[in-house]
Amino acid sequence: MAKVTLTNVWKLYGKIEAVIDLSLECKDKEFFCLLGPSGCGKSSTLRMIAGLEEISEGEILIGDNVINEVEPKDRDIAMVFETYALYPHKTVYANMAFPLRVGKRNYSHSEIKERVQKAAKILEISELLDRYPKQLSGGQRQRVAIGRAIVREPQVFLMDEPISHLDAKLRTHMRGELKHLQKVLESTMIYVTHDQLEAMSMADRIAIMDLGLLQQVGTPDEIFNQPVNQFVAGFVGDPPMNFIDCGLEVSGDSWNLINESFKINLPPDLIEKFKKKNGDPSSRPLEVVLGVRPENFVISGEKARGEGFWGEVYVTEPLGEDMIVDVTIPNNKLKLKTSVDLDIRMGNRVWLETMKNKMHLFNRETQEAYF
Amino acid sequence: MARTELVSKAAKRKRAFWRTLMYIAIAAFFLWTTLPLLIMALSSIKEHRDAFQIPQVGDWLGALKIASFSPTFHHYTDLFTKEHFAQFILNSVIASGSASIIAVSLGSLAAYGLARGKIPGEQHLSFWILSTRMAPVVAVMVPLYSIFTGLGLLEPSRWRNLLGLILAYTTFDLPFAVWFMRSFFEDIPVELEEAAKVDGCSNLKAFRKIILPLAMPGIVAALILCLIFSWNDFIFASIFGQQAAKTLPVATSELHSTVSIEWGGILASGTLLVVPMLFLGLLVKKYLVQGMTMGAVRQ
Amino acid sequence: MAHLKDGTMSQNVSPLQSENAFSRLFDRIKGMLPFHLWIMLPTIIVLAAITIYPFIWMIVMSFKETAMNPGESDIWVGLYNYTRLLDDEPFINGVKLLLWYFLLCLSIEVLVGTSVALLINNVKWENFFIIIFIMPMMVAPIIVGYLFRFLYNVSFGWGYWLLKSSGLMSGETILANAKPWLFSFFPSTAFMAVVAADVWEWTPLIILIVLAGLKAVPQDQLEAARVDGAGPVRTFLEVTLPNIKSVLLIALVVRFMDNVRYIDLIYVLTKGGPADTTKILPFYLYNVSFRYFEFGRGAAIGFILLLFTIFMGLFFVNVVFKKKKEVSNSG
């Protein structure tokens, strides 16, 4: 069983709290992603799992074993470093063979050779086995680093932003390759990144962190469509979600979101969701934040139905099939994503409507989501 | 959920064992390094009869007697009253100081040139500069002796001898200064000079006003290192300083005559020699490695 | 301001100045070379004067036999000063002892220095240790000589007392002891005493250099080795050592150059004795030149010594330039 469990894990650097009371469970054979901006604690978490950092408090288990005091080499893990960490004076073959030569198990020469060649084949670097790292391209070096991890056939793979130093095109390619590889190897993989696109496209489940605190754990779909707070909602998705301050006005059964631009009526199912989240029916926050993703607006040149609002086009950015339109409204600038066929230009007045089933509402103070 | 500990007690004990061994090794080297210096400083403030007292062979506890004595500073004061050390110290200061200043002034120019330009035969030039460090002192001294005799620098005149000494020190300080300071100039981005020139500076002005201030840490470090090398020199001073420009190291060696060895004076003089250099050494601690390896290794 | 062909800008020259032939010549030279070259000129000239001139003088001197009496002129003897060295016993002895000297000093200093550097690297009091360990290096070699002479003294030397008390020494004297140390083919005990003084003074330099090299070992390679399962010895041999190889080489060559240069220690401790067992070549050279005043022969010996050291220096420059090239290629 190669699940990884963190129970109330803290990491302190002196007084700085890098990881705060983190509990999560990565299932066996899962591609689990730790996502967040720099400084959020994801790398510290990974390094604690690896054993490269002391665990200040809490427990980490691999399988059923508490590994807090266990040396990295005894944890049966393999790690791919952001900088690859290849041994420059060893050939590719020697780099990949190194963990097999120095580990606890004594592999024979032929066993080592077999494993290295097998891994090299999977990664398509078989012709590079005699070269030295400085003779390889960035992408090749990265594959050697992965190869060094694969040969050990460990219980858990740990990856620390492995593709962040590759150029954009190669990164796109490697996203698919890494995901495929993980399924082929049937291994548990914990992957750290700051790129939400990587996480969304590759992971089975994502854990988003910010400033040491776990924000949300869920599948990409859950993270994207049911974010629990403004941070998660704004972090995932490109262009990011638009946040519009407004007030919540309730008169009888009529619930409305109001600000200087619009008055949007909330349908009953959203009211139900709000009530469920809010709990105490007598106290309701009056100040809220409306969240709408760029692709969830309807734009037209003229006022269609009643509940939209006007805005002025600030700039348009055509992107092939899609177009990003920046629209200014009083006190805000929104980014919308629409089809490139729409004929609007800078300075045009446009009428915007939100797709109600895709709206999100957040408490302005706590930033938590109602729906 | 069963929980098991994967680390045995034996492994923990093994780690502690190696750790203690490590501390013992460091402590041993620490003692090896500091004890001689301590003994020198202590003995310099003991009367001879106290300084020469050592316990019997094997009497380890008796070693503590090293700390029981009544301190006296007469060895130090004697240096100045009986042996006229003040002027020897002055000679050392003048010779080392002047040579260092000359070396660093001229050296910075060449270091800058080497750092900036694509010079044909740059490697040969660098090698030539390096070879001056490689030349054994005694080998270099032979032709210098002849030349200095011809120039009259070895005649019994204080300023002539001092001049000869300064010149002699410059022969190894200048190449060192060039080689050492080069990397500091290389570190300054060319763009700064180019911006200054666009703003209206001449090459020389840009060098004076922009480059030199930025290279100051390296220049100061070079100055201090040259000071240390020249101050500590004995061989050159013994030959070129002659009698009229005795430096501190030479004067110290003369306390050891055919008749007697003035140990108190020697140790006191030694301490005087060492203390300022310790201080200077700490100042340039950051650049010591760079200095000693002529810039090949950076800290 | 006028733009010159090489891209530099000439400074305003007043009419009065340009009349002077010297300054016109000066400006011509200035104009011919790019700034960074002509600014080097004064230094290059001085350097040439103080290095090349004596060097040529030395070679010329080596072909002459120095006059015994003042007033006589030197006799030209061609290569005689060199050929007679082949029979010159003190010369051959000096070479042999020099080899022993730098082999012993360097190997001990590098071994001990590297070990200590490994021990104190990243330890809590590392900075404190560095400050303490710098001290021997700052002591003038001649003072180190006197200090150790004081310590080795049979009547009042603490070093002598320590060696006898701990049973490490069986003989009765140190600096006067011409008997081979430990093995019959080894140099004398007195020789080893000199080596000990050199080791005391210069091991810290190796420590500092190796420490600098250790800090440059990429942290991620060490972590990767840790995750891969390598123990401390294996990590040192296969990851750390290859990464500090060039630094070690530099330390070796730099120390070699200084080791051969300074004769202060021998001058104070043994003056070449006892029984010529510490008369390494540089010291023999000192005697020939400044005790016997045979400058011609001294110049010849000096030239050979210089060649020997330059040969090693070539090695050094290669390593440094190769390292610089490597650094610019990778990354």
Write the layout of secondary structure elements.
The complex is a heterotrimer of chains A (371), B (299) and C (331).
Chain A: E1 4-13, E2 16-26, E3 31-35, H1 42-50, E4 57-62, E5 65-66, E6 77-80, H2 92-102, H3 109-123, H4 138-150, E7 156-160, H5 168-185, E8 188-193, H6 196-202, E9 205-210, E10 213-218, H7 220-225, H8 230-235, E11 242-251, E12 254-258, E13 263-265, H9 268-278, E14 287-292, E15 297-300, E16 309-319, E17 322-329, E18 332-339, E19 349-354, E20 360-363
Parallel strand pairs in A: 3-8, 3-9, 6-7, 7-8
Antiparallel strand pairs in A: 1-2, 1-4, 4-5, 9-10, 11-12, 11-14, 12-13, 14-20, 15-19, 16-17, 16-19, 17-18
Helix pairs in contact in A: 2-3, 2-4, 3-4
Chain B: E1 4-5, H1 9-44, H2 48-51, H3 74-81, H4 85-116, H5 122-134, H6 137-151, H7 158-187, H8 190-198, H9 203-231, H10 235-240, H11 248-254, H12 263-283, H13 288-292
Chain C: E1 2-3, E2 9-10, H1 15-19, H2 21-32, H3 35-38, H4 41-62, E3 64-65, E4 75-76, H5 80-83, H6 89-120, H7 126-138, H8 141-152, H9 158-165, H10 189-215, H11 219-228, H12 232-261, H13 264-269, H14 281-290, H15 295-329
Helix pairs in contact in C: 4-15, 6-10, 6-12, 6-14, 7-10, 8-9, 8-10, 10-12, 12-15, 14-15
In short:
The complex is a heterotrimer of chains A (371), B (299) and C (331). Chain A is α+β, with helices and mostly antiparallel strands and 371 residues long.
Low-confidence stretches of chain B: 1-5
Which chains have the largest interface? Answer: B-C, 101 and 103 residues
Overall morphology of chain B: flat
Mean pLDDT of chain B: 86
Number of helices of chain B: 13
Q: How far is the first residue's CA from the last residue's CA of chain B?
A: 51 Å
The major beta sheet of chain B can be summarized as: none
Rounded to an integer, what's the Rg of chain C over CA atoms? 26 Å
Radius of gyration of chain B, Cα only, in angstroms?
26 Å
Considering the protein shown, what is the CATH homologous superfamily of chain B? MetI-like
Low-confidence blocks of residues of chain C? none
Strand-residue fraction of chain B? under 5%
Q: Report the span from N to C terminus of chain C.
A: 42 Å
Q: Which CATH architecture of the largest domain in chain C? A: Orthogonal Bundle
The CATH architecture of chain B would be Orthogonal Bundle
Helix content of chain C: 55-70%
Assign the structural class of chain C, choosing from mainly alpha, mainly beta, alpha/beta, alpha+beta, or little secondary structure.
mainly alpha
